[in-house]
Request: fold
Amino acid sequence: MSAFRVVEAGDSALVVEFEERIDPAVNARVVALADRLRVEPVAGVRDVVPAFRSVAVYFDPLRTSYETLVARLERDAAAPDLPARSQRDVLRVPVCYGDEFGPDLADVARFAGTTESAVVDLHTGSTYFVFMLGFAPGMAYLGIVDRQIAAPRRGTPRVRVPRGSVGIAGEQTGIYPVETPGGWQIIGRTPLRPFDLARADPFLMKAGDLVTFFAIDRLQFDRLERTTQRAAG
Amino acid sequence: MAAVHVVKPGLLTTVQDRGRWGFQALGVSVAGPMDPVSQRIANAMAGNPPDAATLEITLAGPELVFDDERQVAISGAQFEIALDQRQFLSGGAFVVGPGATLRFGRRVRGTRAYLAVAGGFDTPPVLSSRATHLPSMLGGLGGRALVAGDRLPCGPPPPRPASTAFVQPTAIPDAVPDGRATLRVLPGPQSDRFSDDALEALQSAPYHVTPSSNRMGFRLNGPALMHTRGADIISDPTPLGVLQVPASGQPILLMADRQTSGGYPKVATVITADIAVAGQLGPGDTIAFAVCSRAEALAALIGQERRLMAMEAALR
Reply:
């Protein structure tokens, strides 16, 4: 059982904090607690939001018993038998690396002291854990990136990062779900859409999922992109 | 379907319902009204349920033309209103005739007004909500602020017959502030990452709302708050009304369009009962912060809810 504490965040939110580190084992407890609060909801709770090492519970103070909620959070966070997340398939994400889709691949190779293709090998060589979503709808924070290619954010963020861009920010990697300003090192682009309202489930990834990347060429990218567009209508 | 036509959009006019709750785990922001109390009053005066979609009008209001006869209510920031040839101050309900033109004129006080039509605005819901979230372009009309030429579909009016007389709310539950406000806060969630005197510093002098403030948050300028363990934390969720403090020591008050998470320590959180007052502030206004107890926060919220329910009952 890992240590935790329940802290107040105003009169309408409680945050359960687990150990202060980015670690799949800590995050698994976060995801399990959030799942349990969703499966057995507490009256008056409006939203349950898991992050790297904490879960925020937003509630209506007029419709929630504060004492009951605190007791429930303390019980569930301490439970040694938190239900294991049913094992999901590993999501395989095709990425066209480098060139116009990956303008920072050369910089990441320089940071790593290696070649662009070695960076691709290292990026595709790990299975990543979805720690949390944030920043924009469907934006998943994946880790942990191999230290050698864990390049820090760009000094000056880009004004416009296209949808589907795959980036690195230190030991995190992720896919920009919408076109947005952003500071991650962009190494490639995927034709998959992390957020697509036209799909039955608009969200490609959820906290606790597993993800790998594999390299495709430009022709394969264009073909997959056309399929995605047709699917989106 | 009957509609409201946008002749002039105003400075920043968006469709807002109570917000897109339940999707923050997937990175989807809540959005919704900056001043939820005024939005609820507008809906009550229009004969709507509290979750109907309204317009949120910022600093300079729109010019609108109505298709059909309909009860309309305006609350929140006070404006001079011209309804065809008639002129009056906003803060009440009235009936517009088919083809009527409603113009917002000079702003008298406050920052954001709420306009409700009987039946609500019937824009397509996205993830169970009509709230406009500008940064991710979700909800409302194409996820953006209104522009000239827009057509806002209206839902069927509620069965309650619309009064043809002016309706004034029996009592405005919480007065709209005029350029300055006191906001009560509770310490946390990370007040332990600040120097011992940070909460005293927060209350020692007023903070100014700077021009780089919007629906996501207010960048404030006032006494600096000192971190003890750096200005970076492992990203965690960001509640409505929280004061996050980047390395500069100048707090940012997170409001309706805030992101779902953030990586700066958070020193204190504005109590729910005072969010509506905060939502009426804009650039140039000043805020005095006052630390209170959880019991006081809850008592204030219960009092506000009682006044709102009494007003809703009087309008029924």
About this structure: Residues 24-39 of chain A form the longest helix (16 residues). Chain A is about 25% helix and 30% strand.
